[in-house]
Amino acid sequence: MLDVLLIGLSVGSILLLVSLGLVIIYGAMGVVNMAHGEMVMVGAYVAVLTQIWLGWSLYAALPIAFVITALLGLLIERCVVRKLYGRLGDTLLATWGVAILVQQFVRLEGGLSFFGMHVQGLGPGLQNMPVPAELQGAISLAGTSINAYRAFIVLSTLLLTTATWWVLYRTRVGMQVRAIIRNPRMAAACGIDVQRINAWTFAFGAGLAGVTGVLVAGFKTVSPDMGTSLVVDSFLVVVAGGVGSLLGAVATAIGLGEINGVLAALSNDIVARAAMFGLVILLIVIRPQGLFSFKGR
Amino acid sequence: MLTSSRRKLLVSSAATVAAVATPTWMRSALAADAIKVGALYSQTGGLSIVEKMLANAVRMAVTEINAAGGVMGRPVEVVLEDGASDPKTFNEKASKLITRDRIETVFGCHTSASRKAVLPVFERRNAMLFYQTHYEGFECSKNVVYSGAVANQQLGNYIPWIVQKLGKKKFFIVGSNYVYPREMAKVSKKLIEQSGASWVADEYLELGHSEWASMVRKIKESGADVVLSNVVGDSLVAFYREYKNQGMSQTTVPICATVTSEIEIAAMGAEYAAGSYTSVPYFMSIDSPANKSFIERYRKFVNDPKAVTYHSLEAAYFQVFLWKQAVEAGKSTSADAIRAHIGGQTYDAPGGKVRIDPESLHAWVTPRIGQWQADGQSKVVDAAAQPVRPLPYFAYGETDSALMCTRKGAAQVKV
Fold first, then answer.
1. CA dist list (Å): A224 to A100, A131, B329
2. Residue A196's closest CA among A177, A209, A210?
3. Which residue of A has its CA nearest to B12?
4. What is the pTM of this model?
5. B6-149+289-302+310-366: what fold?
6. How many CB pairs under 8 A join A and B?
7. B204-232 pLDDT, tens per residue?
8. I need a surface site. Which of A31, A172, B80, B302 has the fewest CB within 10 A?
């Protein structure tokens, strides 16, 4: 049973990692970032490229991916999202367009493939991200064998969630972000530079997605359209957990992951997924504002 | 690099107008009496990864044929169309190639879904489709030449070998949820029972599924001593990795696959697959001068010194030469002439001799079993002495002495 729970926990961890960024971006800015999955994908490609061209391992790729995707997030915020504040439908379309651009950039190797040039590590195919030997296989602990890579993912999630919590609840910038989540206009009236904080929020969310990409690269497929399926599940977490609520995201992601894991063990993955979707629909009908949400003011 | 496809041309010329325009014009001027053939493969969408490679193999074969003087002294021109990973688009593009471009032969399709979608077009307009992918059988069209393997050429040798040589008794069958894995499982179960072994489970996950933890746990708990995998596509990467990560060993409980090829092995990392098996007619590791030269030429053609070749790619390549031989034998490019003359044509493909069966229009190929090594290549551990007859209705009781797919079409089958 312990191994089933660990499987559920690791499924929930990936969900949580992808949704963390979404939750704060959606909470603070009211922007549904359709390109979030592509940030995950870019993170995975950063890992592949640093491995091929610099020979660095998966661990080294984690901070690099954070920085690169955060910068990319900043760029997207400055060029696209900033111009579309308060227009939910438009940001949806615009960020979806960005997502397609980023995907095609990787597929067409930055346009070089038109000239017959090939960049190793890019292109439409599947990429291999080598995993350090200590993360392969299983480790024995207290009589049960534990999947080393999944344990690594759970630990990384714990670390990143704690870091996000610390930033949001223990720093000055975090306090400003929370103020914006509650009421952006009132926050602006109190002298908070909403635009600047929003840009940072967006970059931070994108950076988290980048780190997730590196982690996902180690046990799933690295390909240009890998982000799409991940981000759909994470939207579920955001909606069910409540907008802008860190606690809601944690509880929902782990909860859905465990439900998925247990049901998949009892029946099969297809039933488990269907049940997960059904549960979220039910939840939205009963509590449209999500599990944990602030009182609107 | 250049193709004469309109879509490709538009894209290329947008990128480099001057550089592209000249050779394309020259080509269309030269190609006044060229024989046009179609290549119908997804250039966009999820399946484009694989199908682009197949299109390259077809174009490479055509380039080589042209360099050697063409077909009946005429150059061959490829019209490439994009199926966009969508069966409906495949159907529309097939109609376009046949009716508007007046093309009589098309090389194309990868999934069974896309082949089924274009089949009515080819049969109604009496054109010829060359289809290279190994598939589930149960089809006997007179407008398709099937150059890939069918179930008996992948499983007929495989299951008895697993039971006798590896000494395995309990199979866990796992696959992606669509027609090919399900048909393959049906054949497998029959063969497993005939060989005196048993199967403990027959499980499916949706196409593209990448969360394998629960399934691998089930395999672990089932007590099976071998896994028969009909999983396809990028799911394979997550599957093999999860398998090792949960502490399963390829030596004690090996995964025996029907689809896993050099491509997926390269993407997952060789260490995850080392020790597992695959049964297909062609492996990149086949140690023959013909194959070595093929790999070298392919790498040069796609301008990638590390490019990987695999079974469908080889079949996509050699089918073009079989088409050439049939056209030259009948002195006509029409589908009727090809149908009449392709039966019995043999060709020395990179993976060995192949022959098109005059009755079923499927290919005689040599079944091989490869064991994956630590370097990502296979070691051929078992190979048939000579090419084996294709039996597309194997699952329905077809045998060498009682053919069910003949010149006259398919026999009535009770499903």
1. 10, 20, 45
2. A177
3. A114
4. 0.85
5. Rossmann fold (3.40.50)
6. 110
7. 988 878 889 889 999 999 999 999 999 98
8. A172
